[in-house]
Fold:
Amino acid sequence: MLCKRCGKNQALVEDGLCSRCAAAVVAELTPAPGPEPVADAPLPPRAPSAPYDPGARWALLRSPNGLATLAVALLCLVAASDLASVLAGIGEYRFLADAATGDWSRLDSADARRVDELYVWSGRIQLLALAASAAGFIAWFLRVRDNAHVFLPSGQSKARAWAIFGFFVPVVSLWFPRRIALDTWHASAAEPELGRGRAWMVDLWWFLWLGDLLIGRFAANMYDSAETLEETTSATGLVIFADSLDIVAAGVAVAFVRTLTGLQNQRVQARSAGPAAA
Structure:
C-alpha cells in the first residue's frame, strides 16, 4: 500500500499516509504561536480541569504512524515467540505424557534435558518479547490518546496519565484501558456513527487480551505448583493453550492498532482538507 499523498513510501494502513507525510500534514495543522494579548482585552474563559483541559501543553497533534509501526512489529515478535513456545511445549507435553503412561521406549535423559532447556528458554524469550511489546504498545496508545484529546477535548473521560498507569494499577486495570480506548476511538472517527459501529474491535481486543492474561497466569501458577507427573502434564497442556490464545490476541491487537491509526489518519486528512471536510 503506497502513501495516498506522495505515492512513493509505504503506508501503514490502506488508503492512508506514510510516516513522513503524516508528520508533514500534522505539522501543517499545528497552529503557530499567536500574538501577545492586548492589555485591556477580556480574559478568556477559565479552562476546565483535567482531563478536559484543551490548552494542555501536551495536547499536540502528532503522527501516530511511526509508533504504530513499532507496536505492530513488536506484537508480531510476541506472536513468533508464542509460536516457538507452543512448539517447545508440545515436545514437553509428549515427553511427559509418555512418562505418565509408563511408555519408556522413547525416553532418554539427554533428550529430557534438551526438551526442558528448550522449553525454559522459549519462556524467557516470551517474557522479553512481551516486555518490549508492552512498552511499544503503551507509547502508541498514549500518542493516539493525545491526538484524540486534540480532536475532541470534552470526549476524554479519563486523565492522560491513566493511558499508562491504567494497565498496571490493580482493579482499575480491568476497565480503564478499555474506557480510554473507546473514548479515543470515538474521538478519532471522522463519522461518529461509523466509529460507534466499528467499536466492537475495541471490545474484541480488550476482552481477548484480558482473558488471555488471566488464563496465562492461572496456567503458570498451576505449572509452578504441580507436584506429580500427571499434574505437570495437565499444566503443560494448559500453558500450550494459553500461548495459542496469546497468538490470537496479538493478531487482534495488530488489527486494533492498524485500524485506530487509520481512523486518525483519515481524521487528519479531513481536517487538512478544510473546515467543510472536517
User: Anything to note?
Assistant: The mean pLDDT is 81. The chain is about 65% helix and 0% strand. The longest helix spans residues 229-272.
